[in-house]
Amino acid sequence: MIGSVGVIFGETGSHTFKFMVTDPALRRTDYVKVWHSTDGWVLCQVMSMTRSEGADNKDRVIASVTVIGVRDQQGLLRAPMTPFRPGDRVYKAEEELIVETLGLSDGGAYLGLLDGTDIPVTVDRNKLIQKHCSILAMTGSGKSYTAAVIIEEMMEKGVPLLIIDPHGEYATLKEPNDDADMGALAEKFGVEPQGYKNVTIYTPGNKKLCGYADRPLRLNGVNLKPKEIIEYVPSELNNTEIGLIYEAVNALRNDGIDYTIKDVLREIGSSHSAMKWGVYNKLEPLLEAEFLSDRPTPLTELFARGRTSIVDMKGIGPDVQQAIVAKLLDNLFEARKAGQVPPGMVVVEEAHNFCPEKGFAKTVSGDVLRAIASEGRKFGLGLLIISQRPAKVDKNVLSQCNTQIIMRVTNPNDIRAITKSLEGISSELEEEIKRLPPGVALFVSPDIPRAVMVQVRVRKSRHGGASKEISDEADKEDKPPTGGSLFKRLFGKA
């Protein structure tokens, strides 16, 4: 048995107690165990530590502990029914007890190590898809890096993935990790560098906007309904202008022929209304919008077993991005309901821009994301939501994410948004979120009975989302920075 690290003193309970620390190596968040006369060894966690000077002028370190519990004969986790006894010794918990009590089973998507241990933390891929997941963190805390870790784990099992990438951060999934410290990191986390060849990068624009794209993304531009046309227009339309669009489309439908935006504009131009030139000018940019085509990209190509599709929005305006996402995900959801595409996951980076909370903004993409969040699990379409501003993400979408990965957040409004979306989060964990070190995440999962701290594993592929330094030569070529240790730059440690 590992030696004693302290002795319980003072008033005790069955959920919390304090002990005098005798082991200087003990630290906050360490897992400890105490023998209980009725329940046997009970797993606990050190939540805070204080130091003071005793009557003998010697330092005293006091640890405050939260009781996690013990598994009963039915495998259910419960706390003791009677309090612990002052004078009982506290011991460091061994790996076997931690794994058994927390339910950290082998297999599944490997996220990293239980902080302060060498114990792997995994999550069931099916539950991740069926019950959705969110990654919430302030800028620079490693949210995109962590998202790529989950994406890698999904790709290795052939899960269909569609990644909405507003800033071109995920193209480097194709390339193996060239981190300068990769040798030591690979040994620590038990992974090897790897580039993924089953990744296809699509651009809704042209190759000038996104030179590294593999293929264009094209949406149907033939026989669009008035509502669809209106959603694609970035400018606000008044009621008269909307009426002109309806009149033009109805006239073309009566002719019984296929029509395009060009035909709609011609019909509007022939109107006698004085408002026609205003709506004409607002619709005219759609003529040059390359994402509308008579040969749209098939959904069966975008969303297929063993394939990862990245929709790289680099160079596309925010309003147009939202319109593209709205139509693309609406089509995908309907195709999944009809069984035309396999079960899989949609990854939405910068989610606060696509499904904002009421009061911040209104977007055309918000409705479909809310629909997938609430109904997607019934049809096998999962969501991975990533945001640096939790308070700005639709609370109905966040609350549907049963798995949450939370990295450092300090904004009070964002903290409140997180606590509202999580059931039973304690004030200690709320404070913990504010001071999480880079690369460590608070992991909340229906598979694990309490939130745990996870040191996120190193990526197998190269990271493309690190902030660039002004002096980087890479800026000239608009590529992610290379050289040095990106893991250290992002997470501050190896």
How would you portray this structure in words?
The protein has 16 helices and 21 strands. It has helices at 95-102, 125-131, 143-155, 182-189, 226-232, 239-255, 261-269, 276-283, 299-302, 318-337, 366-379, 395-399, 412-421, 427-434, 474-477, 486-491, and strands at residues 4-9, 16-21, 31-36, 40-53, 59-71, 77-78, 89-92, 109-114, 120-123, 133-136, 161-165, 199-203, 215-216, 219-220, 292-293, 308-312, 344-348, 381-387, 403-406, 440-444, 452-456. The strands form three sheets. The chain has a twelve-stranded mixed β-sheet. Strands 1-2-5-4-3-7 form a six-stranded antiparallel beta barrel. Strands 14-15 form a two-stranded parallel ribbon. Helix 6 (239-255) packs across helix 7, helix 7 packs antiparallel against helix 8 and helix 10 (318-337) packs parallel to helix 11 (366-379). The chain is elongated. The two termini are 30 Å apart.
